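Service request form, structural biology core

Requester: graduate student, group of Dr. S.
Request type: structure prediction, single chain
Budget code: on file
Notes: please return the result as structure tokens.

Sequence provided:
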Amino acid sequence: MKTERIGLIEIGSTNVFVQRIFLAGIILALPASGFGAEAQSGRGAPSGETSQKQESAAQPGQNESAPVQMMEQHALDRLKQMSETLRAAKAFTVRSRSTVEVGAKTGQHVTLLGNSEVALERPNKLRVKVTGEVPNFDFYYDGKNMAAFAANNKVYSIDRAPETIDELLNIVEDKSGIHFATADVMFSDPYSVLTRDLTSAFVVGSATVDGSPCEHLAFKSRGVHWEIWVETGEKALPRYLAVTYAAVQNFPRFLVEFSNWNLQPALTPDSFVFSPPSEAKKIEFRPPPPAPTGRQQKGVKE
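Core staff response, request fulfilled:
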């Protein structure tokens, strides 16, 4: 589980810093009018020292007793089973509804709603469509090229890409500034990504999500507290995800609900190939600029 990344987007005439908490599950990337410097501000997480201090200061009741760390094997086993379900799928499609909390200049939280449609075929095909209050775009990867198209702005970018989805996910943000919310579960081995730097794991209990019986699991790594609802039985698919950034002011949250999982979709090679419209303007992918300084971030939040 990665720590937060901070991006800058516009809501109307207001710039807000978005906690780009793109973990596993939903593709809710944040490009704006283009894909790169024009589209996003810098990424980057607080330093380890800062995150630790903020997280420590944020723990409720810390003066009474230190937080209990636990590592329940059943929670890890269920997460592993979910990972194996996704890993074994040669292809899948999924839809999602998500909310992400952002901090505005007024100091209040603003909640943005997003939707995504994801089609993935291993080892080297991916298409994502993002709609909602977040900037809308389509992303294509066909094993040779990656392309992003913002229909509202009539701009697109296209560039050479690595040979596999794993390699793509490792370079796409640094190269283009685009980050996928479901990146962690799109890897060929989601379990190894999700459990990196894990410090706590336990089973919360049983729950029902959109009619599907699930086990509610909770995990923790430095600065990030996350929960996932995994469908019971052999399917073991993720149904809901909640992430809280304990090392960030006001504890912003990212929530996503998964639906319409299909592990045997009928996909064609053309589904992943981008053909630019004649009226669209080509712009270059650009890496995101450096993250805002602490003073700049404070200025936005105040």
